[in-house]
Design goal:
The complex is a heterodimer of chains A (244) and B (234).
Chain A: E1 2-11, E2 14-24, E3 29-33, H1 40-47, E4 55-60, E5 63-66, H2 76-80, E6 83-86, H3 98-108, H4 114-127, H5 143-155, E7 161-165, H6 173-188, E8 192-196, H7 200-206, E9 209-214, E10 217-222, H8 224-229, H9 234-243
Parallel strand pairs in A: 3-8, 3-9, 6-7, 7-8
Antiparallel strand pairs in A: 1-2, 1-4, 4-5, 9-10
Helix pairs in contact in A: 3-4, 3-5, 4-5, 5-6
Chain B: H1 2-9, H2 12-60, H3 64-78, H4 82-92, H5 102-128, H6 131-139, H7 144-174, H8 186-197, H9 200-229
Helix pairs in contact in B: 2-3, 2-5, 2-8, 2-9, 3-5, 4-5, 5-7, 6-7, 7-9, 8-9
Classes of the chains: A alpha/beta (244), B mainly alpha (234).
Bound molecules: adenosine-5'-diphosphate and magnesium ion.
The site of adenosine-5'-diphosphate (ADP) has 11 residues of chain A, from strand 2 and helix 1.
Chain lengths: 244, 234
């Protein structure tokens, strides 16, 4: 399903990803943990091609991009549509209502009919528990509600993989649960997901695999119960002690 | 001033003559405003804004030659007096065989001017939109032009509305410079009328008052517009 091979990303002098290899099967949920600055965000951004990797390749379903040679600009937007991105800071469009935020992609990019898109967008917003907030602007919504609109907006493009970059870390504690619930529902429906989060409960309950990243490498990977209860690598142990 | 007032009060005939002139000149002055000042302002503002958006996009583009052309244009316009620019177009170009009528000369001159100043406003507004907005657009598969048009420019236009309104109001007043290149707009008409009856103070005060009323109305509209555009921010 997802196949990342030898992925490197360098910003000028700083090498942030130092060779990431990762396979994810369809329908699996992978949680990525690791200290700040370890390259988690950069990895997700490379998958969504918001950053252009320095070298390596990414394959999703039957499409792949090889960054070792130069990638044509035309190939990027269709590849990008395979993944849906949920940002830490939501990044909703402030001049559009919740409904318009969700409708924007299908209408502008896929040129789908407005009527059909409206129905789909209403269903998606209802699914994330915002059926009664369709005409609210982002500033009228709580952080948790905004993030759920963000999830619905990404889903509206019908991506094959959903990427979440610390989706709850900007939220007040009492709002974290409602977002995690939506994500768990999505996982149960069989969505393939890569989630950067330090919500251990989510990792234990929803993840098929946990990946620990440090210094631009995948240091350790395994089932959540194995990683959390008996990590093998010293760095993983240290990190888990810090966050628990 | 005191002498002027005294001379008026002491001389009822002068008062009624002044009232007469003020009344009879109102119509040609307003005609000048409606036929020239206002159309000139509107046409140049629209042309200028289009030019400004293109210039702003050129300046933030990654294409070096475009950037450089845009920078030179903005710098040249901002670094030279508007009146000199108008003179170059209207009195200068004919010496190399390019003859342009007064009104189109004014349109060209003012449009170039608005284009340069407004491009800086628009550029700053575009740059003020958080990077995350571009990325959110890209992440749902939008292209650069789609993101620009649907996501960035609508937000940038809200940011740039107050400074652009100021540009517009300045433009209304600046069009009086078109009098110098023979456009018979409101101020030129005031000059012409005053030349026949020597009541310079009266006519220039009258024309000033009309500019003031127009700008006052515009500032009210500006306030309303800003309120409306603010509906989607807290
Ligand atoms: N656009 C960029 N330019 C330069 N350095 C960057 C950029 N984005 C991220 N970095 C650097 O890359 C490193 C990894 O960042 P990031 O992927 O955000 O880590 P994480 O999400 O694990 O905290 C950090 O040291 C960060 O400063
Ligand atoms: Mg991060």
């Amino acid at each position: 399903m997802i196949s990342i091979k030898g992925l490197h990303k360098r910003f000028d002098q700083l090498e942030v990803l130092k060779g990431i290899d990762l396979e994810v099967e369809k329908g699996k949920v992978v949680v990525v943990i690791g200290p700040s600055g370890s390259g988690k965000t950069t990895l997700l951004r490379c998958l969504n091609v918001l950053e252009t990797p320095t070298s390596g390749s990414i394959g999703i379903e039957d499409q792949s991009l090889d960054f070792s040679s130069s990638v044509s600009k035309k190939a990027v937007p269709p590849f990008r549509r395979l993944t849906g991105m949920v940002f830490q800071s939501y990044n909703l469009f402030p001049h559009m209502t919740a409904l318009e935020n969700v409708m924007e992609g299908p209408i502008t990019v896929k040129k789908e009919s407005k009527e059909a898109v409206r129905k789909k967008a209403e269903q998606l917003l209802t699914k994330v528990g915002l059926g009664d907030k369709l005409d609210y602007y982002p500033f009228q919504l709580s952080g948790g509600q905004q993030q759920r609109v963000g999830i619905a907006r990404a889903l509206a493009m019908e991506p094959k993989v959903m990427l979440f970059d610390e989706p709850t870390s900007a939220l007040d504690p009492e709002l974290v649960g409602e977002v995690l619930k939506v994500m768990k529902d999505l996982a149960n429906e069989g969505m393939t997901m890569i989630v950067v989060t330090h919500e251990m409960r989510f990792a234990r309950e929803a993840a098929d695999e946990v990946i620990f990243m440090d210094g631009g490498f995948i240091v350790e990977r395994g089932k959540p119960e194995d990683i959390f209860t008996s990590p093998k690598e010293e760095r993983t142990k240290q990190f888990l002690r810090l966050i628990q | 001033m005191k002498m002027f007032l005294n001379s008026i009060i002491a001389d009822p005939e002068r008062v009624s003559r002044l009232i007469d002139i003020a009344q009879s000149s109102l119509q040609p002055l307003l005609k000048g405003a409606i036929l020239y000042t206002i159309p000139l302002t509107l046409i140049t503002f629209v042309c200028g804004l289009i030019l400004a958006v293109l210039t702003a996009l050129a300046r933030i583009s990654s294409v070096k030659p475009l950037q450089i052309i845009a920078r030179i244009y903005v710098s040249a316009i901002r670094g030279t007096p508007l009146l000199v620019q108008l003179f170059i177009i209207f009195y200068g170009l004919p010496t190399i065989g390019v003859v342009i009528d007064p009104f189109p000369s004014a349109v060209i001159g003012f449009s170039l001017n608005v284009g340069a100043y407004a491009s800086e406003i628009i550029r700053a507004a575009i740059l003020s939109i958080p990077k995350g907005q571009w990325e959110a657009g890209y992440s749902i598969g939008m292209s650069y032009p789609q993101t620009l048009k649907r996501i960035i420019l609508p937000q940038a236009s809200r940011v740039s509305l107050p400074p652009l309104s100021n540009t517009f109001i300045s433009l209304v007043k600046d069009t009086s410079l078109a009098a110098m290149i023979l456009v018979t707009e409101m101020f030129r008409r005031a000059q012409e009328i005053a030349a026949t009856n020597y009541e310079f103070l009266l006519l220039y005060l009258e024309v000033a008052l009309i500019y003031w009323v127009i700008c006052f109305i515009l500032s009210i509209i500006q306030g309303r517009l800003e309120k409306r555009m603010d509906r989607f921010v807290s």
